[in-house]
Batch of 3 targets.
Target 1
Amino acid sequence: MISRRALLAGAAAAGAVGFAPSALGRVPASVDTLPKSAPVRRLALSAAEMEMPLLGPGKPVTKGFCAYNGTPFLTLRAPVGTRLMVDFENRLPDLTTVHWHGVRVPYLSDGVSPLTQAPIPAGSTFTYNVPLPDPGFYFFHPHCDETGQVGRGLVGLLVVDDPAEAKLGFDAEHFIVVKDWRLDEKDGRWLEMFTDEGASTAGTFGTVRATNGSIVPPRVEAPAYGDVRLRVIVADSTRTIDFGCETEDAAIIAIDGQALTPLPLSKLPNEIWRMGPAMRIDVHVRMPGPGEEVKVYDYRTAEPYLLTTLVGVDAPGNKPGRKKTAFRPKALPPAKVPLPDVKRASRIDYLVQTAAGPIVSGDPLPPDDPLAKALIASACVGSKTFWAINRNSWGAGADLRLPPPLATLKDGASYVVSITNVTKHVHPMHLHGHVFRVLSSSKKKDIPPYLADTVMTEPNETVEIAFRAASGDWVFHCHILEHMDSGLMGWIRVV
Ligand code: C2O
Ligand code: CU
């Protein structure tokens, strides 16, 4: 069981220090992934509410939209090897934290309340040490009342640039942020983000769809016959998309920021790539001639949903006399993340399942416990339990407790984890602090091995992933945020 005193001390010092459950024996070292000499970039980050015309011009504005630094989908960018020191200020009226999704940060900067830090109260600050050891496309978001705060827009993008990519010669870069809004379409007010019906099934969907915040699918100009790098992210709390392009000349060149041997969309079953919440892809698209379009769709809905239209233009910056040439997808430099030794790996099996009722592995905190009160008041935990991993659910409501770790692993050792989804719904499963190799799926054949931080599991599918364990306390959870908030989260300790 967890050390009550450590938790209470952490809660008392809310916002000031991280804390970790210590009664399990040795507390993991919070290991840095860059040398001390790495160049440091200090930046101020705040989260606050603002008004946004989400329903479009001439419609009621929406209050209580949440953004970082006053910018919807704020994008941070830095060269690989940089250390970001982020002075974060919580200007929201509620508790929050910041999690750096997919970035291999020391775990005390991982932003998971209450596992790695106490929630940051309104008006308080916390400094995150965010080393950027790997190039790629990442994002950041709260890990406390995620369903509510992300639902109202609190998502930032993070691009880690590799100078070696410059010679690939992309002509343009464009972001596609898939994020719906749960709004009353008459008055622009937010609807309840968490519903029992949604949380216990596929999740509660937004009422209006949007790309990059706009309910009108963006039209973007790009050099005719040029090479576009699309950075696509599903930042929605619920929606899974089947990403596809109306062209033969498109290939996935990175998944969750990690390079892979280019995977032409035309070679994939149904020419689509399925992406659940939190998943990213980089896509190389070759533009057609001037005035011609490439339409990018989500084919998962009965009626394909247009995400974005790319339009070929002869812009002044366009190289004169550019002609159509054969499409050869550009390969990014190979990823350099720590790789598992699959042959010598230990095996772990996880079942993603519905909760069979409250299964209490540890003592729940009594409701009058100061920590229980602090955390319930914090809205950092959900109120219902619908899901479990190996019969363990993350604490919710009155059953407030940190469950025991799913496993205690050895720092530097390799593990193969099989994840079997025995529910009727898809679950995009995310492991913090690691980039893992997706080894196999019982349902999808012919997919080359690739690296990721979030992997889709379909009903009755077993997916195998492998990774080299890194020191820390790391959560493993479904990224459908209502699922996570209703039990579908566990944690591993690596010492
Ligand atoms: Cu996007 Cu626990 O993470
Ligand atoms: Cu789920």
Target 2
Amino acid sequence: MRVLLTGGAGYIGSHTLLKLLQEQNEVLVLDNFSNSSMESLRRVKQLANRDFDFRNGDICNSTLMNDTFNAFKPDAVIHFAGLKAVGESNDKPLDYYTHNVTGSVELLRCMRRHGCKQIVFSSSATVYGEADYLPYDEQHPLRPTNPYGRTKYFVEEIIKDWTASWSEASAVLLRYFNPVGAHDSGRIGEDPLSTPNNLVPFISQVAIGRLDKLNVFGSDYDTRDGTGERDYIHVDDLARAHLSAVHFASKNKACEAINVGTGRGATVLEMVKAFERASGRPIPLNMAARRNGDVAKSIADVSKANRLLDWEAIHNIDDMCRSTWNWQSLNPLGYK
Ligand code: NAD
Ligand code: WQD
């Protein structure tokens, strides 16, 4: 298949790109490098031992998007491009609406114009908000609590309307839970440009000595040990889910929202222990106040992914921490 990857130089995009190349798809990556570098693409090319097309540009640039569709003629799009920091989205909501919502509208318009009928969209578990029940299934009410989450919710709705208006179109809205880990080679991984907001990259930078200690945000939640519980999903499993989703979209005229997680939760302290086992290094902790906007638990019901995509996660939290540590220790400064 010919697959256009928006945001393909980023963390999840680069891992998915590698799998698509290994499965002999023709790929074009379009990325503006606002949160990534050319180095990830150079390394994917080495790992795959194959070349692929690439354009440096913004999904909001309609001239560039039209040129790209004209030249590459994709069968499908996997749409990763967007801004993703929850805290930043409270300070700069219009940047989030522009990149995430306007950019997606531009992309869908271009797809329709060029007859490209299939899209897999990077949505997020954050669309659910506070849980009425757990695990979250795809029917759970959607009540995102921050601008970032609302952009994901709005784009899901826009894609539903887009598929409803075009009988040949199909879409899979993948709601990722908490992606972590890195490729086994240690050559590609998550490389936050500034101090990480997310737990595992933060722990990893404590272990390598770039940060002093981990602030544990809240120890009085209603969980096994009082710390927040999440459904962490290995990026390698997540990348596989994209290949299954593209395949599903090529066979089914539908618009399906599908959770991508393991169906199991781990607390902050359990992740810290797993990382200490993986790295052999102690992680100093500071028990801190709850972080604004955090929920106690977030766990996926993954039965729809099992059923429709014939996919399930195979990696556990030890695999996730081992691969993160391998990447971090081989690349103490990330791609720099
Ligand atoms: P990332 O920041 O590593 O990757 C996003 C890529 O998109 C980057 O390479 C960035 O340079 C590019 N980009 C951003 N805006 C662009 C634009 N306007 N035009 C072209 N390129 C642009 O993030 P990631 O972790 O790989 O996430 C990929 C997608 O998955 C995002 O849409 C994110 O919201 C979503 N998601 C991520 C997580 C997570 O925890 N990592 C969880 C749920 C959903
Ligand atoms: C996990 C747990 C924290 C950092 C976020 C986004 C979500 C999605 C995935 C994009 C929580 C605790 C964290 C730290 C800590 N991204 N923690 N100390 O908040 O579940 O989800 O990333 O779509 O939209 O909101 O992930 O990794 O930030 O936090 O104690 O320094 O770790 O309180 O319990 P979260 P996270």
Target 3
Amino acid sequence: MLYIDTHTHLYDERFDADRPETIRRAVERGVRRMFLPAIDSESHDRLIDLARSWPGTCLAMIGFHPTSVNDNPEWRSELECAARLLEESPVPFYGIGEMGLDLYWSRDYRKEQEEALRFQIELALRYDLPIVLHTREAFTEIIRVIAEYKHRGLRGIFHSFAGTAEQYRILRGLGDFRFGIGGVVTYKKAPIAAVLEQMELTDLVLETDAPYLPPVSFRGQRNESAFLPLIAEKIAGIKGVPLEEVARITTRTAEHLFGLL
Ligand code: NI
């Protein structure tokens, strides 16, 4: 069975001691491709180095995370930095992200976050790349922004989707969007498990968000891409379909979205 981890921060310092082993473990479990979302310029070099060392296995994205906008006087030059890297393309970039709105920590920077989001949406449209959206405590706000781009061919992933069935239907109607499901779905009483019953399997992609959000049996530990099949197993149980079908369909959806087919 083949899987794609559509969202993993393998360049994070928490993998410094055993990164190649971590990647090999994932590949052995069938996770043959791992997409790396960017955070900010502090980690760009590590992300690019990793993609360069593992071509075809670790695939780079570029973007600027919404929480890195907060309290950061340099946020506009961060956007310029991402735009410059796209232009120079030291490695192929397969998507723009992660970007979005995160009003959980503070609502003071929502205007700045929204400007950063729009800037990156325009980049995605210019380069015809999918976007990876991080949304926390901001569904109403992000729906309003994304709705403005409804007929412009925007496509992408709502990463770590934690919305309602209603929000899923609204977002699905706004463009070619898919929904990233991660370790949270394995947690007891996770609301997303009930929402999943109302989502189409063809709308889902798998993600670990490693080193964050490990599946329930690894809670409190570092997450890694090798744990991705546990998420697929949980989805197979909820949807009442064989694991093979979850692997096959989510892999195909991710390949299609990232232009690998
Ligand atoms: Ni992330």
